[in-house]
Recover the amino acids of this structure.
């Protein structure tokens, strides 16, 4: 009986050690295959009985390639202007050396949604476009928004 427990324990140690995988190449790192990776996406929602509430979103993105730079260089956040107010809390670019650049309010545009041009019934759907200044490959983008629901 003791012999069988030793055999099972040895087999478990063998599996956990990973030595049976030595002939296989490790999977590629995310930075080699992805244009960008999300380090954090945090969403906090609060709703009241009267239908009001808020949705706070915080995002942290690491840019790895030029294609990722094109995608992350402009943030587009949709909202319904009839029932919601969208506030951009902050937009930071963190450089690899630790410096932080902060995007100003002049980089935020409030535009009508492309769908409202083709379907006027959706004219209350809007988008805030945030141009991220100074973002380059290797940087980390951090931003937070607060969506207030008032109707």
């Amino acid at each position: 009986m003791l012999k069988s427990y030793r055999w099972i324990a040895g087999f478990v140690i063998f599996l956990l050690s990973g030595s049976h995988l030595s002939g296989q190449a490790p999977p590629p790192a995310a930075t080699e295959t992805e244009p960008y990776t999300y380090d954090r996406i945090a969403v906090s929602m609060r709703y009241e009985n009267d239908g009001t509430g808020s949705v706070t979103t915080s995002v942290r993105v690491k840019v790895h390639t030029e294609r990722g730079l094109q995608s992350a260089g402009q943030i587009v956040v949709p909202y319904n202007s009839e029932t919601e107010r969208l506030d951009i809390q902050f937009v930071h670019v963190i450089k690899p050396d630790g410096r932080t650049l902060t995007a100003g309010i002049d980089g935020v545009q409030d535009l009508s949604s492309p769908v409202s041009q083709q379907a006027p019934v959706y004219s209350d759907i809007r988008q805030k476009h945030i141009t991220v200044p100074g973002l380059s490959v290797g940087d980390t983008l951090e931003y937070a928004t607060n969506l207030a629901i008032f109707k």
